[in-house]
Amino acid sequence: MDVGTRLFRSALLGLAGNRVARKFSERYGMKLGASRFVAGETMEAAIEQAKRINQQGVTVTLDYLGESVSSLEEAKGCELAYLDLLQAIRASGIDGNISLKPTQFGLAINEDSCLASIRKVTKEAACLGLFVRLDMEDSPWTDATLRIVRTLKAEGYKNIGTVIQACLYRSRQDVRALSAEGINLRLVKGAYKEPPSIAIPSKRKVDANMRHLIRTRLDSGVYTAIATHDEEIIRWVKSYTRTHNIPRTAFEFQMLYGIRTPLQAALAREGYTVRSYVPFGRSWYPYFVRRLAERPANVLFIARSLFKR
Ligand code: FAD
């Protein structure tokens, strides 16, 4: 990645956390082009999109957008929204599960209450035969997120997992430990702005670390979601699993709603499990800005589509 792109990406990621920009943008609804990456502002819209995606042979994980809530009342609202979402998944018959962000459940306010809230959602999901994944946010929340997952796993919940980011130096150690504990992981490169003291600064090295983590997980036999749009890595996973006799039931590919949609369907047609991450809700701004930062060309694409209106 050249210096200009790196600076641009860093500036955009800075904007993702800006509350004023967030309020301003969300007031304009999805008109800023967010609908390319967000399935809608309501649960009903997301369920409709999920049905459409399922018809392509692709399963989903639904994410009710929201993060860094500033009160426990807001966190409670998210818990209720997720409980409704679980019922809606079952009632609509879609093939899918849920992803959630711990800071949306009040992690930054009170870890115990966040744990209690996530426990309620996980328990309800278990009753309905659904899986819950805790997304991984920026590094101040890594340890607490892993603590919550380990606590719930120790309490006997088998339907819970989390995410590990290849950009962090600590991740090799985390993946080894979590694999030994049998914890279901999604592996990603990492979407947040992190200091160089803890994060690998070069994209090439992050890509190499991603492959290392994937190999460790595939060799461990513990179920793994490989979440990337990187076609070279996807090709390599297909070849590695073939030559090492790793069954397709041991892993799945995951991609984001609106990104590489034909590739998602093509992999599903080849017989791989593919899951599309389908975000919805009114708090779409930080998620949207992270998607722009991943690919600066997206900013041009959005700008062009705004001028075409
Ligand atoms: P890259 O090397 O960044 O991209 C490879 C190619 O994919 C690019 O050349 C481009 O063609 C395409 N591409 C990638 N991003 C975009 C985009 N935004 N728009 C258009 N094309 C794009 N990160 C976290 O930190 N925590 C999480 O919990 C988390 N969950 C995720 C769940 C899923 C299902 C996925 C797919 C990603 C998740 N991420 C998460 C984001 C992840 O960390 C990366 O930021 C993101 O996936 C981009 O990296 P990449 O692996 O696709 O590879």
From TrEMBL:
Its EC number is 1.5.5.2. SUPFAM superfamilies: FAD-linked oxidoreductase. It catalyses: L-proline + a quinone = (S)-1-pyrroline-5-carboxylate + a quinol + H(+). Its cofactor is FAD. Pathway: Amino-acid degradation; L-proline degradation into L-glutamate; L-glutamate from L-proline: step 1/2. InterPro entries: FAD-linked_oxidoreductase-like, PRODH_bac_arc, Proline_DH_dom, Proline_oxidase. Gene3D superfamilies: 3.20.20.220. Keywords: FAD, Flavoprotein, Nucleotide-binding, Oxidoreductase, Proline metabolism. It comes from the Bacteria. The keyword Nucleotide-binding applies. Residues 47-303 form the Proline dehydrogenase domain. This is proline dehydrogenase. It comes from Paenibacillus spongiae. The lineage of its organism: Bacteria, Bacillati, Bacillota, Bacilli, Bacillales.
